[in-house]
TrEMBL record:
Main location (coarse class): membrane
Recorded GO MF terms: kinase activity
Sequence ranges assigned to domain Histidine kinase in this UniProt record: 321-511
Cellular location(s): Cell membrane
E.C. designation(s): 2.7.13.3
Bilayer topology annotation: Multi-pass membrane protein
Catalytic class of the enzyme: transferase
UniProt cross-references to InterPro entries, sorted A to Z: HATPase_C_sf, HATPase_dom, His_kinase_dom, PAS, PAS-like_dom_sf, sCache_3, Sensor-like_sf, Sig_transdc_His_kin-like_C
Lineage per the UniProt record: Bacteria, Bacillati, Actinomycetota, Actinomycetes, Streptosporangiales
UniProt keyword Metal-binding, yes or no: no
Reaction(s) catalysed by this chain's protein: ATP + protein L-histidine = ADP + protein N-phospho-L-histidine
Protein name (Swiss-Prot/TrEMBL): histidine kinase
Length: 520
């Protein structure tokens, strides 16, 4: 690279110097011709010259005059001659009387002209002009000129100055190229152009091959790079690169995270229909911040499976609790029998069995959707363990619905968990009421609790990622409820009935989305 830069600088300087030489030579020749012509015309117009031509020996008066003008004008010769070309003056007196060497025909015709011709003093740039009398007739000729050797000497002086200037320019160019090359080596960590090209090709292929999203944000918080994975996960526009992060239409929490310029690890953010795990690392050069590198991983499916696993874990915990209670009751029945109180044992066992069967019948009778029925049974038992009564409204009627069951579990499960938490923080008795119904092409879910309720401003923030009444900033359940509702094309409302918060979800059903809807 350095050699290439030196060659380019050298060719540029040498080419510029040669062009300068050519231009200077042309200027010197042009200047010499103009000077010779001006002097020749001036001498030819002098009355003293015309008067001397009438003398028997014109050289006596003309030779001193011509030499004085020649020296003052800086010319090499001024020759005054007759029409036939016989010299009256010459820098070399021995040449006086000789015949002029050169072309005189245009001057005899009355025209002034210039030419380069080899005479007694060698090659010269000369001008020849006529001397006219009062009637306009040509009486004599005047030739003035500068030798090529003298012009060459002046050109050599100019060439030396130009060459020195070119040499200084070449030295400065080489020094500048060396500094640029050294800086380039530092910035590229010593990698050569071929290595940089190969690295770029590899990195470009990697960026487009990885499924995880990758973003690069510069110090001005503008997006400088987004690979295919990031464009798909964030649904970025085609012209996203170069735009400010705040102009990309990202969720506020995610945009704030990208613009913070801080290191972040495995933060969960929600977009329109995705759950993303976001990590960020600040890029620094010394103490100067250059920007941020952000990675995005899609955990939508994993989060849904985690929700299902939590539900199954809740069911298992409910079964464990039920088994534990059943064992206690069985020991009570056995003890009563051993004490000879068989009637009381039968009455106790029958009452417990009747209560459990009534709960199951009430849930299954109202909600014939098996997944939601199982969820409600498990949440009812779990709520009872925590001292909260979870009841299903008498007018709840729900058959199988053609909706994504994972989204339904996410919506109902998180609403119930939130309601139980709220009821436990309110005044006793703690209570949660659930209403489920499918009618007029809409699946309605209403969950009310006896908690402290929500204010108007709080109701706007409950579906924002990180909102929680616990104050730890890690709330995700209600944010996922909002995301699932949007994914199903529904709407959710938050209100307060004076006794606690009320969450109402309306989901559109397909035309055949409810089996036996007419009967319900």
């Amino acid at each position: 690279m350095l050699v290439l830069q030196i060659v380019v600088v050298g060719v540029t300087v040498v080419g510029g110097t040669l062009l300068t030489f050519s231009h200077i030579r042309h200027l010197l020749n042009d200047e010499a011709a103009k000077t010779a012509k001006a002097v020749a015309i001036s001498v030819a117009a002098s009355p003293a010259v015309l008067a001397a031509l009438s003398d028997p020996d014109p050289s006596v008066a003309l030779q001193p005059y011509a030499e004085r003008v020649r020296r003052e004008a800086g010319l090499d010769f001024i020759t005054i001659m007759s029409r036939e070309g016989r010299r009256y003056t010459h820098p070399n007196p021995s040449q006086i009387g000789g015949h002029f060497l050169g072309n005189t025909a245009p001057a005899l015709e009355g025209r002034t002209f210039t030419e380069t011709y080899t005479g007694t003093l060698g090659p010269s740039v000369r001008a020849v002009t006529p001397v006219r009398d009062a009637s306009g007739h040509v009486r004599a000729l005047v030739s003035a000129g500068i030798t090529v050797d003298k012009l060459s000497a002046r050109l050599r002086d100019q060439i030396a100055a130009a060459a020195l200037t070119g040499l200084i320019g070449l030295s400065a160019g080489i020094a500048g190229a060396s500094l640029v090359s050294a800086r380039l080596r530092r910035q590229t960590h010593g990698l050569r152009s071929a290595e940089l090209s190969r690295m770029y090709e590899y990195h470009n292929a990697i960026l487009h091959a990885v499924r995880e999203g990758l973003l690069m944000v510069d110090g001005d918080r503008r997006l400088t790079l987004a690979n295919d994975g990031a464009r798909e996960l964030l649904e970025l526009p085609a012209d996203a690169e170069g735009r400010h992060v705040s102009d990309l239409g990202l969720p506020p929490s995610l945009a704030e995270s990208l613009m913070s310029g801080e290191d972040r690890a495995d933060e969960i953010h929600l977009t329109g229909d995705r759950v993303l795990v976001v990590s960020a690392a600040a890029v620094r050069s010394g103490t100067r911040s250059l920007g941020t590198v952000v990675t995005l991983r899609d955990h939508t499916e994993l989060q849904a499976l985690t929700g299902q696993l939590d539900a199954e874990r809740g069911f298992a915990e409910s079964l464990r609790s039920a088994a534990h209670e059943a064992a206690n009751r069985l020991h009570t029945v056995v003890t009563l029998v051993e004490l000879g109180r068989a009637d009381q044992a039968v009455e106790f066992a029958t009452a417990e069995l009747r209560a459990a069967q009534q709960l199951t019948d009430r849930v299954v009778g109202a909600v014939r959707e098996p997944v939601l029925a199982a969820l409600l049974l498990g949440k009812t038992a779990e709520a009872a363990e925590r001292g909260v009564e979870l009841s299903i409204s008498p007018d709840s009627v729900l058959d199988d619905v053609v909706l994504d069951r994972r989204d339904l579990v996410t919506i109902l499960g998180n609403l119930l968990d939130n309601a139980v938490e709220a009821a436990m923080s309110g005044s006793p008795p703690a209570r949660v009421d659930v209403h489920l119904r499918a009618e007029d092409g809409t699946f309605l879910v209403r969950v009310a609790d006896s908690g402290p309720g929500l204010g108007a401003q709080t109701a706007k923030d409950v579906f924002r990622r990180g909102w929680t009444t616990k104050g730890d900033g890690r709330g995700l359940g209600l944010a996922m409820v909002g995301q699932a509702v949007r994914r199903l094309g529904g709407a959710i409302e938050v209100g307060d009935d004076g006794q606690g918060a009320v969450f109402t979800v309306r989901l559109p059903l397909p035309r055949d989305g409810v089996d036996g809807e007419a009967s319900s």
